Fold:
Amino acid sequence: MTTLQISNLGQIRQAQLTFGDLTMLVGPQATGKSITLQLLKLLVDAGYVQHELRRHGMDWERELPKFFDLYFGEGMKSIWHENSAVTWNGNAIDMIGLFDRMKKRGDEKLFFIPAQRVLALRDGWPRPFTDYAPGDPFAVRDFSEKLRVLVEREFTTDSLFPQPKRLKSSFRELLQRDVFASFQLKVDRYRSQKRLVLGAEAGAESLPYMVWSAGQREFVPLLLGFYWLMPPTKVAKRGKIEWVVIEELEMGLHSRAISVVMLMVFELLRRGYKVCISTHSPQVLECAWALNYLRRYRARPEALLEVFKVPRSGGLYEVAEAVLTKDIRAFHFDSDSQQTRDISSLDPETAEPGVDGWGGLSEFSSRVNEAVGRVAANSPQ
Structure:
């Protein structure tokens, strides 16, 4: 098992995580979830990160505060203290020594989809690494650069969605229904400049980026990230990538669209990726809870497909069959204690703090049910 321990880093006083095939991080804003996931990227890909920073003319001069500002973003140098410590798979990490041991580029092994992914598109086209300010987080810049390379080198037509060679037909049908409606994602040329637009039937006016719905603007970079991870070949994974991080996959999406995205996450698991998610969505935790219980009772894949109300066709049965064998973990980042708690059981009937409320995601609905129940019980009607 892969383990990570963090002490006194930013908002985190103590964090202990054991990663599963699917690992979910929950908790209020500013509790350290993003720092943890970016740190995971750094530990897995130190050589790659160092190479990319230097390739784009950035030098941190072996000074850790400068590196933290470059990597995590401007103002983040203060997250590291004299008593900060990181332990990776049981080994204490010397942050400076980490780079000394990883002077070569190495193969990238973790693909990071940041919460700020909407920034990856400017006027509807992916921004290059150098288009950002020096103090912008590495994860955002690197993700944006990958999308730029993807759309400029791997698409020979102007149609990006639907694409017969990208994604299973069942995913395309679900996304058409729940995200894009009757629209298609296309490459348009406006005053000699390429841009992504949403187009309906032939001859109809195309919609530029700024008039898309908030959900469509959030989803398109996420879709391109899935494209990057699911190459249109018989090879299941991209290059040497073993890990995938997706921050707040639910941003801007209706609950039906969230369900489709979770099915696509299950496809990543089927392909052999280890996936880490940060989320503020009770629906995402409900998916994990359903998986845990269906697996515990050795349910057939049909039961999971019923949860998502999707057919067995289009490869979805194989996805459900594969994901029911996976190890699901969940961790709550508590704002009061500044520590993490393993809530992987996701048992709503337990009295264990943090687990009963799914890291706070179900607290409000529980209070609503209790309040309404008391009023109904005491009503004379």
